[in-house]
Amino acid sequence: MKRTWELFLKEAVIVIFCAIAGVIALAATYFIPQGKMWDKVYESSIVLHNEGLGAHIWQNIEETMLDVYTDGLLLNVSYTETKDGIRDILLDTYVEVDGRNPMESFYEVSALSNDEYIVRNYGRYWHGYQIILRPLLCFFTYSDIRQINMILQLVLVFLLICILAGSKDRIFIIPFGGMYLFMCPISLFSSLQFSPCFYIMMLTLIVLFACKDVLNDKRTNYLFLVAGILTAYFDLLTYPLITLGIPLLAYLGLDYKWISDDRRKGWKQVFLLTASWCLGYGGMWSAKWVVTTILTGENIIYDAFEKIKFRSGYFSVKHSYYDTLKLNLNVCNRKVLMLAAVCIGIYILTVRVKDHIGVDRGLLPLVGMLLMVSLYPFGWYFFTKNHSSSHSYFTWRELAISVFGILMIGVVRIRQFRDSFSA
Questions:
Q1: 96 has which bridge partners?
Q2: Which secondary structure element, helix H or strand E, spans residue 197, and what is its range?
Q3: For residue 56, what is the DSSP state?
Q4: Which element (helix H / strand E) includes 94?
Q5: DSSP string for 158-194
Q6: Considering 115, 225, 387, 412, which has the largest number of Cβ atoms within 10 A of its Cβ?
Q7: How far is it, in rounded angstroms, from Cα 224 to Cα 231?
Q8: CB-based contacts of 77: which residues, under 8 Å, 6+ apart?
Q9: Positive or negative CA dihedral for 240, 78, 70, 60?
Q10: Chain centre distance of CA 349
Q11: Could you tell me how far CA 8 lies from the centroid of its own chain?
């Protein structure tokens, strides 16, 4: 227990240093002159306006819905500057015209030169994407950045597949491929809002598989801590749990045998890695509220807690948990049916072959751990009913954790099936 508290104390110190570094990184991006971005911002605002809210890549397929609203907000925040640099950096100012949404307001000011606007604050998030987006807007339009986004995502997917294909863990390509297709890659390419969590998840998986021989328990805890910190810094509450759930499932499946031999340690690691991620995510996010409140005089702590109460759905408008699940599952109902078919196929392939293979009871603790982590999205939906109901067009991607977990159970069974024949 003492070592656990020492670990958490060290992780808390890391969070503090990361918060300081996060402020410095944001401040550095504001040295980029606003005028240097103007041409690309002008073109970008027109592209967003023409696409409009509720745009889909493929009509009537909900998985392909884009988040033009929030992408407009990202560019709005990245471009907006006032005379108070500290407020721009920490309060993340954006323009609003006649109560319109951030995307349309961005269009009005950037493309139509409407100077009758007010400046709003969005200080409860870090908006760390600015350290990437502001430099890019000096050279590229929104359409260009989308193409860059597509290329980078495909490179990471290709890199991970190459790492897996060149190792004894190549069978993990199956759950990864199923999970990746479930997430609808074409919409991940096309909405900047959907990208941060995907990048953090992919980088964490690459480190896990590429560096598994040098990742001891302590380093793995730090890896999950950093994943949580980066999620809080770059994401605007899209599907953040994916940066915890999928790497955790991959970690559990990497070497199923040690968990069979030491189930107590396995459960302990599930707890510690989850706690490390939560400390990174919650600690980094709340650090933004504290820093901003102290340096700007705005009570961002109060604002953040008010929004948490509202988004949870327990202190304001009541949202049924059943309705929340229904809304999120309905977005991907076709994929759920396909997943069920895949699971049935895996079961048929891995049942008893004559009398050679039976059920390995030693796998049951691991299966229990995989199932528990696979249920993380349902816990998330329970505590964020309002948010997950209102934004089901992207929060449904949390279910990729469940998809990956169920497929991982099948993969572990296949590995046990294979190992028993080679023994």
A1: 118
A2: helix 195-210
A3: B
A4: strand 94-96
A5: HHHHHHHHTSTTGGGHHHHHHHHHHT-HHHHHH-GGG
A6: 225
A7: 11
A8: 92, 93, 94, 102, 122, 127, 130
A9: negative
A10: 33
A11: 23
Q: How far apart are CA 107 and CA 73, in angstroms?
A: 11
pTM exceeds 0.85: yes
**What's the one-letter identity of residue 306?**
E
Q: How many CB atoms lie within 10 A of CB 181?
A: 13
Strands (E), 261-356: none
Q: Which amino acid is at 42?
A: Y
β-bridge partners, 94 = 120
> How confident is the prediction along the chain (423 residues), in pLDDT tens digits per residue?
778 888 899 999 999 999 999 999 999 999 999 999 999 999 999 999 999 998 888 887 888 899 999 999 999 999 999 888 888 899 999 999 998 999 999 999 999 999 899 999 999 999 999 999 999 999 999 999 999 999 999 999 999 999 999 988 888 998 999 899 899 999 999 999 999 999 999 999 999 999 988 888 899 999 999 999 999 999 999 999 999 999 999 999 887 677 767 778 889 999 999 999 999 999 999 999 999 999 998 889 988 888 877 766 665 556 788 889 989 988 876 665 566 566 656 555 555 443 444 555 667 788 889 999 999 999 999 999 988 998 999 999 999 999 999 888 888 877 766 665 554
**Among 80, 127, 89, 126, which Cα is nearest to 289's?**
126
Measured between alpha carbons, how far is 400 from 374 in angstroms, rounded to an integer? Answer: 9
**Element (DSSP H or E) covering residue 119:** strand 118-120
H helix and E strand count, the chain: 22, 2
